Amino acid sequence: MRPATSRAAHGSRRWAAASGMVSAVAAVVAGELLAGLLSPSLSPLTAVGGALIDALPPGVKEWAVSLFGTADKAVFVTGMLIVIAAVGGLAGILEQRRRFAGAAVIAVFGLVGLAAVLTRAQMTPGAVPVPLAAAVAGALLLRFLIRRLRENTPAAPAPEGKRGTGRRTFLQVLATSAAVTAVGGIIAGVWRGAAAGISTAREKLRLPAAASEAPAIPAGAEVSLDGMQPLVTPKRDFYRIDTALIVPVIDPDTWTLRVTGMVEQEIELNLADLLAKPLIERHVTIACVSNEVGGDLIGNARWLGWPVRELLALVRPQAGADMVLSRSSDGWTAGTPLEVLTDTRDAILAVGMNGEPLPLEHGFPVRMIVPGLYGYVSATKWLTELRLTKFADDEGYWTPRGWSERGPIKTASRIDVPRTGRRVGAGTVKFGGVAWSQHTGIGKVELRVNRGPWQQADLAPGISRDTWYQWQLGIELTPGQYEVQVRATDLSGKPQAEERRPVAPDGATGFHTIRVDVNP
Ligand SMILES: Nc1nc2c(c(=O)[nH]1)N[C@H]1C(S)=C(S)[C@@H](COP(=O)(O)O)O[C@H]1N2
Ligand SMILES: [Mo]
C-alpha cells in the first residue's frame, strides 16, 4: 500500500505544479487581453518588463542587446514568462498543501504588476485595475484546478477503474485551461505585437512646428487653489470615450484619408501630405454628451492639425451637401454640420495633442477636433474617411440610438473645490471650478448658497472662447450645512439652463450643486 500512496502523492504534486504554471500564465494572458481593452499602451507584463530593463545596469543591458541582437525584447519576454511559469509551478504545489497558499503567491504577482504599472510614465487610470483583475483570474483558476485535482486523487488508492476516470476528468480540465490560455496568448501576442510596432512608429513620428502657434495662455488663467484641475489636461487624466473594444492600431505609413461623396473633386491624402500642410495649434476643450452635471467627461488640450475648411476648399462640396460624415477605421461615424466645418472656427484634422502625436487611445494618427460640438457628432478618432452628404440621407453612429442628430455643447459649469460633502473650517471658504461655453465664451460665473442671491465669482481669463475658464470665489460661512450652486452665463449674456435634464438626447442641463459641511 505505501509505495502506491506515495507514488500517487508524487504524481499529484507534479499535476499541482502543472496547474500552477497554467494558472500563472493564464493570469499574464488575461492581463495582456484586458490591457488591450483598457490601456493599450501599458500592460502589466510590459510595465514589469520596462521596470526590470530600467533597473538593469547599463553594461548588462548592452551586453544583452549585443547577445540577442534585435530579438532581445522577445528573448526578454520569454525569459519573464519562464520565470513566471516556474513560480506558478511552486504556487501550485503550495496551493495543494494549503488552501490559498498558492493563490497568495499569484496575488503577489498582481501586486508586483500594480507597483510596476503605477510607476511607469505611460500610466493611465485604465491600466490600474488590470494587474489586480488578472491576478484574481489566475488565483481563481488555480483554486479551481487544485480542487479538481484533490477530488480526483484519493489519499488512499481507490479501485483502479474509478481513480482512472477521476484523473481523466482533472486532466481534461487542465488541458482545456491550457488550450484556452494558449489561444488567448496567441491573440494577445499578435495584437500586442501590432500595438507595440505602432507605438514605436508613434514615438518616432516628428510633428512639424505649427505655422500658426497656439495663442499664449494669459497670465492668471490658471487659478491656484488646492484641488483644482490643471487648466490643460494631461493625457493620462484625459477622459476616453469610444465604442472600440480593442483600440484600433493604425500604421501611420499606410494611413490615408479619403474625401468622398458630394464633392467636385475626390481626394485621398496620406500622413506625409497632411503633415506638409500649414498646421495650426489651438487649445480646445472637448466634452462628451454623456457628461452628467458636475461630471468629468470633459478635457482641455492643445491640438495641432490642419483646418478642415482648407481641405473642404480643395474638394469643393456640391450644392445641397449639409453634413460631413466622418468615419473611423473601425466603422464608427459622426455627422457634423458642414457649416461648422467651413465657418471661421478652428475645426481641425488633429495629429498632435499637448505637443505629442495623438495617443493611441485618442485616435492616432489622425482625429477630428471641432470647437463647440459634443464628441459624438464631431471628434472622430482613427479617422479614415470624410463623406460629404445630407442630414436627410445619412446619420452618424449615435443618432439612431437615441441621441440627437445635432450636438452643440451646452453652456455649463462645475464646482471642483471643495469636493461635495467635504468638511471645511468656518470663515472664508474658497470655492473654485470651471465653466465652459465653447465657441461663445464665458461672460460670468455666479454662486449661490442655500438658494440665496447669486454672488459673482472671479472669472479667470480664458485661453480662448473654445476652452473652459477657471473661476474662484471666497464666501464667508458660519458653522452649519450648506447647499452651494454654480451658474455660468455665456458672453452673449445667455445663462446656462436651470432645468434638470438627463444626458440623452442632447446633453444634461441643470446647476451643479454641492453640499458643504462647515465645522466650528
Ligand atoms: N472612432 C471613434 N471616435 C470617437 C468615438 C468613438 O466611439 N469611436 N467616440 C466619440 C465620443 S462620444 C467622444 S465624447 C470623443 C471622446 O474623445 P476622447 O476619448 O479622446 O476623449 O471621441 C469621439 N470619437
Ligand atoms: Mo461622447
What brief labels describe this structure?
binds ligand MTE, 10 helices, five-stranded antiparallel β-sheet, five-stranded mixed β-sheet, Sulfite Oxidase, Chain A, domain 2, Immunoglobulin-like, 37% helix, 3 domains, globular, alpha+beta, 22% strand, 19 strands, 520 residues, single chain, binds molybdenum atom
Task: Write up what this structure looks like.
The chain is built from 10 helices and 19 strands. It has helices at residues 2-38, 44-55, 58-68, 72-97, 101-119, 129-151, 160-204, 271-275, 308-315, 338-342; strands at 256-261, 267-270, 280-287, 298-307, 323-328, 333-337, 348-353, 356-357, 367-369, 383-389, 412-417, 423-425, 427-436, 442-449, 455-456, 458-459, 469-477, 480-490, 513-519. It has a 5-stranded mixed sheet with strand order 2-1-10-5-6. Strands 3, 4, 7, 8 and 9 form a 5-stranded antiparallel sheet that branches. A 5-stranded mixed sheet has the order 12-19-18-14-15, with no helix packed on it. The longest helix has 45 residues, at 160-204. The protein is globular, with a radius of gyration of 29 Å. The structure holds the ligand Nc1nc2c(c(=O)[nH]1)N[C@H]1C(S)=C(S)[C@@H](COP(=O)(O)O)O[C@H]1N2 and molybdenum atom (MO).
